[in-house]
């Protein structure tokens, strides 16, 4: 247990010393390199800068990073995918994900809100299927508030979070709030 506490203290001090720009960069780069642990970076940002500032830094960074990732896949779309996937498999892939293009705004918000959803994959599909930028950005801004707050507040691994009743209740409440907000914004802005 002492070793774990030492690692957490060392990492928190390292991020604090690097400053807000370094904390921002860690979360931003995770959107482009999905193997990095977003939950750990957010938890360390919250540890280093407090709940409000840590969540704010992480939210801005993950929204910008996700948008860059989405924009990349939006731009390359089918031109590069023919080379990467191959013409033979491209039609099968397109059939599998084409229905995602017509996903409702509320469902998109809920998918982004879930803290365990692989955001890189969502960004890739949203960009590849050319979901409208307005719909994507608004869903991203709403959904990421809840998922970043979740990781900042919980700051635990996936397994620990799934076995913690408080975390499960928080996820459920978060989904309800995100659903209600997305419905209200959809009526006001008519994003569909």
Overview features:
single chain; 192 residues; mainly alpha; globular
Task: Note down, in words, how this protein is organized.
The protein has about 190 residues and is mostly helical. It has one domain. It is built from nine helices and no strands. Helix 2 packs across helix 7.
Mean pLDDT: 78
Helix content: over 70%
Radius of gyration: 18 Å
Shape: globular
Q: Biggest sheet, open or closed, and with what strands and sense? A: none
**Which sequence of SSEs, written as H and E, runs from N to C?**
HHHHHHHHH
How are the secondary structure elements laid out?
Layout: H1 2-32, H2 38-49, H3 51-85, H4 87-97, H5 105-113, H6 119-128, H7 133-154, H8 158-163, H9 165-189
Helix pairs in contact: 1-2, 1-3, 2-3, 2-7, 3-4, 3-6, 3-7, 5-7, 5-9, 7-9
């Amino acid at each position: 247990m002492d070793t774990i506490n030492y690692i957490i203290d060392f990492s928190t001090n390292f991020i604090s010393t690097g400053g807000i720009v370094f904390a921002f960069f860690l979360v931003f780069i995770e959107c482009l390199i999905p193997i990095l642990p977003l939950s750990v970076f957010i938890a360390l940002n919250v540890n280093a800068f407090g709940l409000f500032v840590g969540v704010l830094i992480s939210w801005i960074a993950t929204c910008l990073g996700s948008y860059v990732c989405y924009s990349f896949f939006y731009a390359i779309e089918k031109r590069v995918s023919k080379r990467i996937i191959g013409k033979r498999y491209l039609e099968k892939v397109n059939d599998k994900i084409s229905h995602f293009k017509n996903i409702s705004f509320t469902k998109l918000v809920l998918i982004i809100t879930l803290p365990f959803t692989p955001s890189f994959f969502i960004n890739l599909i949203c960009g590849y299927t050319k979901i409208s930028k307005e719909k994507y950005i608004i869903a991203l801004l709403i959904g990421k508030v809840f998922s970043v707050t979740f990781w900042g507040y919980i700051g635990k691994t996936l397994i620990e979070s799934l076995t913690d009743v408080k975390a499960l209740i928080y996820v459920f409440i978060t989904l309800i709030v995100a659903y209600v907000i997305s419905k209200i914004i959809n009526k006001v802005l008519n994003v569909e």
